[in-house]
Amino acid sequence: MAPDEQPVIEPATREDLETLTDYWVDLAREQRQHGSHVLPDANREAIGETLAAHQVGGGLLVARVDGDVVGFASFSLERGAFTLDATRGLLSNLYVRPAYRGRGIGTALLEATEDELAQRGADVVTLEAMAKNDAARRFYRHNGYGTHRVAMERSLDDRSENDTHSKEEQ
Predict the structure, then answer these.
(1) CA 66 to CA 15: how far, in whole Å?
(2) What is the reported pTM?
(3) What phi and psi, each to the nearest 5 degrees, are found at residue 65?
(4) Ranges of each domain in the chain
(5) Pair 55, 39: CB distance under 8 Å
(6) What share of the chain is helix, strand, coil (3-state, %, to 5)?
(7) Residue 122: what are its φ and ψ, rounded to 5°?
(8) What is the DSSP string of 62-105?
(9) 104 and 2 in contact (C-beta within 8 Å)?
(10) Mean pLDDT of all residues belonging to the chain
(11) CA distance 54 to 11
(12) Which burial class, exposed, middle or buried, applies to 33 when counting CB atoms under 10 A from its CB (0-12, 13-18, 19+)?
């Protein structure tokens, strides 16, 4: 892909699903280095079904370069039990193959996802990024995303007596 060549962003087809499942497994493997608890291979079947549901529902885009899929985004409108003052679009996955990063493909996928969600009535888009994944957090900040909610985690295997005392002091 020439530096100025734009990827083709389009809805995923059923024929893309096996490749996208492989890419999701690659994504999950990458996220393990940032602290993700998701087991890539153990979730292959589940993500295959999830991506197929996104594809049928129109919530799965691919980026193609010279006809080859080089990235994808999966998304949906939030369907929760609470009444909100905004309709939230959820970006569940955005992945670009490592050899194609830094060429605007992720941004093109993100913008196309935002456009699709806006057409469906979303007012805001939410997503998650691993706290230790500086590159992903930098990418999203560069594209206008800010921190809205912070998730916190603690290992129960690494607790010590000092934890109890520090809690009492607070």
Answers:
(1) 16
(2) 0.88
(3) -130, 125
(4) 8-169
(5) no
(6) 40, 20, 40
(7) -70, 140
(8) EEEETTEEEEEEEEEE---SS--SSPEEEEEEEEE-GGGTTSSH
(9) no
(10) 91
(11) 10
(12) exposed
Average pLDDT, stretch 27-37? 95
Q: Give the type of residue at 76.
A: S
Nearest to 93 by CA among 4, 28, 160, 5: 28
Which helix (H) or strand (E) element contains residue 125? strand 124-127
Look up the CATH number of domain 8-169: 3.40.630.30
pLDDT tens per residue across span 126-139:
999 999 999 999 99
Angstrom distance (rounded) from CA 114 to CA 159: 41
CB environment 95-128: b (16+ within 10 A), e (fewer): bbbeebeebbbbebbbebbbebbeeeebeebebe
Smallest Cα–Cα separation from 72: which of 16, 136, 15, 1?
A: 16
